[in-house]
Specification:
Elements: E1 4-10, E2 15-22, H1 24-30, H2 37-54, E3 61-68, E4 73-81, E5 85-92, H3 104-108, E6 115-122, E7 132-137, H4 143-155, E8 159-165, E9 170-177, H5 197-208, H6 213-218, H7 221-229, E10 234-236, E11 243-244, H8 250-260, H9 262-272, E12 274-278, E13 285-289, H10 290-305
Parallel strand pairs: 5-11
Antiparallel strand pairs: 1-2, 1-10, 2-9, 3-4, 3-6, 4-5, 6-7, 8-9, 12-13
Helix pairs in contact: 8-9, 9-10
Amino acid sequence: MTDTLQKFMFENAGVRGELVELESSWQQMLSHKVYPKAVQTILGELMAASALLSANLKFNGTMIMQIHGDGPVKLMVVECDADLRIRATAKLADDAVIEDHETLKELVHAHGQGRFVITLDPNDKMPGQQAYQGIVPLDGDNVATVIENYMLRSEQLDTKLWLAANEKVTRGMLLQKLPDIGGSGTHTKVGEDGEDGEDMWSHAVMLGDTLKHEELLNTDIATLMHRLFWEQTLRVFDPLHPVFHCSCTREKVGDMLKMLGQAEVESAIAEIGRLDINCDFCGKHYGFDQVDCTQLFVAKTLAEGTVAPTEIKH
């Protein structure tokens, strides 16, 4: 199974598109944690959407999508970097009982306090540079609508998404209207019929709206692109291949423990003798005994007290 993201553009028109199919990475993600069916579906759709949006970003870093909930689902997170390495997780309330038919609103926006967050975290930050973060209310009945509203309000980009997921695969399609060149408000003419950019965008969305949910779930993306746009002249780019990848390391887990503070870590060790931590994304286990935890803070103290050789004065 090779996951694929296919970019394309409508020739002589300001419309770009992408189709994504995640099977291998989706199966790897699901192998680490079992979710209720309704949660699985929404997380899968968010994972497909993350790949689609990340593929259009021109920066060396990671895009993090989060849905913060006030219902039985407290948090959904998907991370996708510039190489389309992707991972996802969800946190449920301790007493959560979730039925298969429950919707996004019921799961994460039950009391109107749900939030949608996109963070762009560059790998090569300048000194003092912070990650960009956009936070908006959860505006929409499904993942696609929430993201469409975010892109229009925060990025001023007309965007349409079609998403579907089950226990085997998650697929998605994105269409996006490109800004007018130079901001002149004029549109490129398309073909001999004089169809302008606005008409071409509406036509592309109309074609996309013919795509049924079951068709998206059960049809490979090459077939979908031909079936939907066979009458259009498309420029098709080399396919990209998203993969599941978890960036957790023992060092990062250690850094997390250090952020808790030495007193709290020592208290926990005194009570239970050992800290066992599993990565929420990949399930990998990290164990820290008393010696390990002591060394975390000793190493920090030594590092702060060490003078670089070039600074030693004789």
